């Protein structure tokens, strides 16, 4: 191997530059507190650190989504609580109106208050969130979901806005008004009963229920009627007029008529030919229920069996509306609980991701300071070596 003076100088300079580069990297690590400041420092570690950074950022976004969702669900729950309070007041007034001591005037006063309660309920159904979006409009949040003109019409859609609260977890941040205020089953939720328009007796249909759920599926494929063939006798007929059942009725004690899983309580004295129709529950919005109650209370010369039957029919529909809002509040509460639980899980995940990221890219100061001391010594040795070599010539060794 041929050794020259310039070669030795180049080697010394290269050694010093290499030591200075190592010191520069250590100084950067000590100033940033990170072992990896660029991918070339540790390509594998840099890739892992990038993955952990993305996971941490995703979890932070999930937490922001949860905060927004909780705020919106909280507003929905408050609106539903207000709506439930309004309907509770309507129910109280309806019980008062059904009292036999009421007059046309007092029932008119009750109807006037119900008109105001209806407007309050409409305001709750058209309530907004903090961003000005309508809570119960489905995905059409830019316009009021309930339009009031010749009755109340739902103009929103049936969609639900969802947010990502965690990996693979989507949570609804609201409920469409169609499900909350519009598509409410009539009657007891399985069947509804209404008095015949030509009834002349004082018989009143009261509470109804399903006494045998197992018999119900085959029973409600069509319409049925309870016909009083005499003041003390009745028949149950199907839509074709076929007699399915019959029995006796005592007006002095009243009682329930049961057939094919259905049970209906009666009171009062029927006349021969009086009838009550039974059919599968349909859908009716709560505003229609209120409108029918108000219209019934405003009828002149009220207080008879026909008014009582009409009020009882709408009373059952009102209870269905109240139950529907209560169920919706339960679902809202369940979502908020799920979001709170997921928020706790996200906090735990964030801590784990940050700990793993720290293990990959954070600097061990004790090792770094030890390396700094060693690298400083190595640089000083290289500098001293260069000082000795730069003044030397090959001919000095030939004297």
Automatic annotation (TrEMBL):
Pfam families: Flagellin_N (PF00669)
Keyword Secreted tagged: yes
Domain Flagellin N-terminal: 3-141
GO cellular component assignments: bacterial-type flagellum hook; extracellular region
Subcellular location: Bacterial flagellum; Secreted
Statement: the UniProt record of this protein carries the keyword Secreted: yes
SUPFAM superfamilies, alphabetized: Phase 1 flagellin (SSF64518)
GO terms for MF: structural molecule activity
Gene Ontology terms: biological process: bacterial-type flagellum-dependent cell motility
Keyword entries, A-Z: Bacterial flagellum, Cell projection, Cilium, Flagellum, Secreted
Main location: other
Matches recorded under NCBIfam families: flagell_flgL (TIGR02550)
Similarity annotation: Belongs to the bacterial flagellin family.
Protein name: Flagellar hook-associated protein 3
Gene name as annotated: flgL
């Amino acid at each position: 191997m041929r050794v020259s003076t310039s070669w030795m100088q180049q080697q010394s300079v290269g050694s010093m530059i290499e030591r200075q580069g190592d010191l520069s990297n250590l100084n950067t690590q000590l100033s940033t507190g990170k072992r990896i400041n660029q991918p070339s420092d540790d390509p594998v570690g840099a890739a892992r650190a990038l993955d952990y950074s993305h996971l941490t950022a995703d979890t932070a976004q999930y937490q922001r989504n949860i905060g927004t969702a909780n705020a919106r669900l909280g507003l929905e729950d408050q609106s539903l609580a207000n709506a439930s309070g309004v309907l509770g007041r309507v129910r109280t007034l309806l019980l008062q109106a059904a009292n036999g001591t009421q007059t046309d005037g007092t029932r008119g006063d009750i109807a006037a208050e119900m008109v105001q309660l209806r407007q309050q309920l409409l305001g709750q159904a058209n309530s907004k969130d903090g961003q000005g979006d309508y809570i119960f409009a489905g995905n059409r949040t830019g316009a009021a979901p309930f339009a009031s003109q010749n009755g109340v019409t739902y103009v929103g859609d049936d969609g639900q806005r969802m947010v990502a609260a965690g990996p693979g977890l989507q949570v609804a941040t609201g409920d469409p008004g169609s499900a909350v205020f519009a598509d409410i089953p009539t009657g007891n939720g399985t069947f509804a009963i209404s008095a015949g328009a030509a009834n002349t007796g004082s018989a009143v249909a009261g509470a109804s229920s399903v006494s045998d759920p197992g018999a119900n599926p085959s029973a409600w494929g069509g319409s049925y009627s309870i016909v009083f063939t005499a003041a003390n006798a009745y028949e149950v007929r199907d839509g074709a007029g076929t007699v399915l059942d019959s029995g006796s009725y005592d007006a002095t004690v009243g009682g329930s008529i049961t057939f094919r899983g259905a049970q209906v309580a009666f009171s009062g004295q029927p006349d021969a030919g009086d009838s009550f129709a039974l059919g599968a529950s349909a859908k009716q919005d709560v505003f229609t229920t209120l409108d029918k109650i108000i219209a019934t209370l405003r009828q002149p010369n009220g207080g008879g069996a026909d008014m009582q039957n009409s009020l009882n029919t709408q009373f059952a529909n009102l209870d269905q509306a109240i139950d529907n809002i209560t169920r919706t509040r339960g679902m809202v509460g369940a979502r908020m609980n799920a979001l709170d639980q997921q928020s706790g899980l996200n906090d735990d995940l964030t801590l784990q991701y940050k700990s793993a990221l720290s293990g990959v890219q954070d600097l061990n100061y004790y090792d770094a300071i030890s390396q700094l001391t060693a690298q400083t010594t190595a640089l000083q040795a290289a500098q001293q070596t260069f000082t000795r070599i730069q003044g030397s010539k090959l001919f000095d060794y030939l004297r």
